[in-house]
Design goal:
InterPro entries: Endo/exonu/phosph_ase_sf (IPR036691), Endo/exonuclease/phosphatase (IPR005135), GPI-anchor_lipid_remodeler (IPR051916). About 27% of the residues have low confidence. The protein is extended, with a radius of gyration of 43 Å. Among the domains are: 89 residues, no CATH class; 217 residues, Endonuclease/exonuclease/phosphatase (Deoxyribonuclease I, Chain A). Helix 7 packs parallel to helix 8. It is α+β, with helices and mostly antiparallel strands and 461 residues long. The strands form three sheets. Strands 1, 4, 5, 6, 7, 14 and 15 form a seven-stranded mixed beta sheet that branches. Strands 8-9-10-11-13-12 form a six-stranded mixed beta sheet. It has a two-stranded antiparallel ribbon with strand order 2-3. The chain is built from eleven helices and 15 strands.
């Protein structure tokens, strides 16, 4: 055994001696120290670095965060879909102001109209002098915008006078005095008239400025927010819209304008009236979509399914619906129709379910809601729909709400959840289907005020 090992070792040495010499780099002063190879241990920190930069396989397993929202746009009747276009004559404060012609324009070069033509400086210098050596002084009275102003060819205005003569020819001294008194009275009257006109113009200008400021404040308050502006503040990647208007004859406006203003794609399905219905906005491509009529063929409401290609997460099924607002039994039929339509596929269900969750309210609050429904002629509140969905193990995004609520959305006494409609109750929901791969982020649920753009608030997660 020892001889065999010795023979193998000798063969290995002979093979090494037969190799060509290694080529060295550098001069004769190069260090002959052996090259050292360091082998690092793969610790936990290195594993985390490799997992985050492990290529497409690692990126596919990394979670992708998506912002989802639902909003009842109230048919764009309370606010425009997009802000009104800015006019060219806008002064930046919401009020328009007239701008005069440019100095080089033809209108600016047009001479003023007057009842007496002013004498030019050249003609004035060439005019014959009076017998007593004085030149006659002239006046130009122009009437722009019903206004009498003296011609100001010099620092002071000039009036027409006749020079006094010492004897005959041009008349007596009394005649000259009459001319001076007449034109002096005209000049004095003109000065008083200008002062009165100037005061009137100042008062009128101040009044116009006050009216414009009031109009500007009211106009800015009236268009303080548009639907596009409040949705842009939310920053959602996918939005379920109910009660939107899309006129086919006008290029699906105003829904198309809203989507363009947000930089999103959209699909639309008519629901309770022609050109009115549900829509889905998406920041990413919408690969497929389908509208399903709820309950039966006589039901005009529907659920709109959009299959969205989310980068890093694949296809996400996003459902938008708007259920009946009066009859709970009809809502139960509509919900069961949605469940059959889903057929076990994972999805996110968002929209106006118009149903109440009994766990949101205390007994006193529920009694107050029932009393109010009776006063306004609505059916008594029921909670079968939400109880049925939770029995089907749907996950409510409200369970992932943060501890601090939006100050502008008040939760009435005896109510654990913020209201989403004008009655103060929660009727708009975002739900995840049972056993779906979608997980709500804790603390991400919020009810965002619509700021007067609708009678519903925005629900997002």
């Amino acid at each position: 055994m020892a001889s065999t090992v010795k023979r193998a070792f000798r063969c290995l040495l002979d093979g090494l001696r037969s190799l060509p010499p290694r080529r060295r780099v550098g001069g004769p002063g190069r260090s002959k120290a052996p090259r050292v190879v360091v082998i690092r241990r793969f610790n936990s920190k290195d594993r985390r670095r490799a997992s985050t930069s492990g290529g497409p396989a690692a990126a596919a397993t990394a979670p992708v965060t998506i912002r989802v929202a639902t909003f009842n746009a109230a048919m764009f009747s309370m606010a425009p879909a997009v802000p009104p276009p800015a006019h060219d004559d806008d002064d930046g404060e919401g009020c328009s102001s007239w701008r005069g012609p440019a100095s080089g324009s033809a209108l600016a070069r047009r001479p003023k109209r007057g009842i007496l033509k002013g004498q030019s400086s050249a003609s004035a210098s060439a005019a014959p002098a009076s017998p007593d050596g004085e030149r006659r002084r002239h006046v130009c009275i122009s009437l722009p915008d019903d206004e009498i102003t003296p011609h100001r060819s010099s620092a002071s205005a000039r009036m027409v006078t006749r020079p006094a003569t010492n004897g005959g020819g041009g008349g007596s001294g009394s005649g000259s005095g009459r001319w001076k008194s007449v034109f002096g009275a005209v000049w004095e009257h003109q000065q008083h008239y200008q002062q009165r006109r100037q005061k009137q113009r100042q008062k009128q200008k101040q009044k116009q400025e006050q009216e414009q400021a009031t109009t500007s404040r009211s106009a800015s308050a009236a268009r303080r927010r548009s639907v596009a502006e409040v949705l842009r503040e939310v920053g959602a990647d996918m939005v379920a819209l109910q009660n939107v208007r899309a006129e086919e004859g006008r290029g699906m406006r105003p829904l198309s304008e809203l989507a363009e203003g947000l930089g999103m794609r959209f699909v639309f399905a008519e629901s309770w009236a022609p050109e009115y219905g549900n829509a889905v906005l998406s920041r990413w491509p919408i690969k497929r979509w389908k509208a399903h009529r709820l309950a039966d063929h006589s039901d005009f409401r529907n659920v709109l399914r959009a299959t969205i290609d989310v980068p890093g997460a694949g296809e996400v099924s996003f459902y938008c619906t708007h259920l009946d607002h009066l009859d709970e039994s009809l809502r139960m039929k509509q919900v069961n129709s949605i469940l059959r339509f889903a057929d076990g596929r994972h999805h996110i269900l968002a929209g106006g379910l118009n149903a109440l969750d009994a766990t949101d309210y205390s007994a006193d609050r529920w009694a107050a809601i029932a009393k109010y429904h009776e006063q306004i002629g609505k059916p008594a509140p029921k909670a079968e729909v939400m109880r049925h969905l939770k029995a089907k193990r749907y996950v409510d995004a409200k369970d992932f709400a943060a501890g601090v609520c939006e100050a502008l959305v008040v939760a009435p006494n005896g109510q654990d959840a913020q209201g989403t409609c004008k009655y103060g109750t929660r009727v708009d929901y975002i739900l995840a289907s049972p056993n779906s791969p979608y997980r709500f982020v804790p603390g991400s649920y919020a009810v965002v005020p619509s700021r007067g753009t609708s009678d519903h608030h925005i629900v997002m997660v």
